[in-house]
Amino acid sequence: MCLSPLHINLGFIKIFVKTTNKVGEGFDYLRQTFPNMSEAKIKEGIFVGPQVKQLFQDLDFNIELNAADRRDWVAFENVCPQRFGK
Predict the structure, then answer these.
(1) Pair 66, 21: CB distance under 8 Å
(2) In terms of residue numbers, what domain contains 62?
(3) Is residue 29 part of a domain?
(4) Exposure string (b/e) for 65-85, b if CB count within 10 Å is 16 or more?
(5) pTM: predicted TM-score of the whole model, two decimal places
(6) How far apart are CA 86 and CA 23, in angstroms?
(7) Are 46 and 15 in contact (CB under 8 A)?
(8) From CA 75, how far away is CA 68, in angstroms rounded?
(9) Structural domain contains residue 11
């Protein structure tokens, strides 16, 4: 079985969100950006392609992250092969 780049990228975002500081401003920003998503889905990192694309295009998201989460986000951006059309 071969996974598509989209499935791989969605797996990466899931890992990123699960390791993000849940009491930090970055996680609060996710809640504000996606108000229709349940808290449980956000905590588990269950996002779809358009939502991740929106995060890639949102310059404020990177600013809201603490230093450790920002470093992880930059690494995530660097390993995503197609970057959701960015």
Answers:
(1) yes
(2) 24-85
(3) yes
(4) beeebeebbeebeeebeebbe
(5) 0.77
(6) 28
(7) no
(8) 11
(9) no
CA within 13 Å, CB half, 61? 21
Number of domains present in the structure of the chain:
1
In a domain, 13, yes or no: no
DSSP-assigned letters across all residues of the chain:
----HHHHHHHHHHHHHHHS-TTSHHHHHHHHH-TTS-HHHHHHT---HHHHHHHHH-HHHHHHS-HHHHHHHHHHHHH-SSGGG-
Q: How far apart are the first and last CA of the chain?
A: 27
Give pLDDT tens digits along the chain (86 positions).
555 677 777 888 888 888 888 888 888 999 999 999 998 999 899 988 888 888 888 889 988 999 999 998 888 888 775 555 54
Check the CA dihedral 14-20-24-25 and report its sign: negative
* Residues across the chain: 86
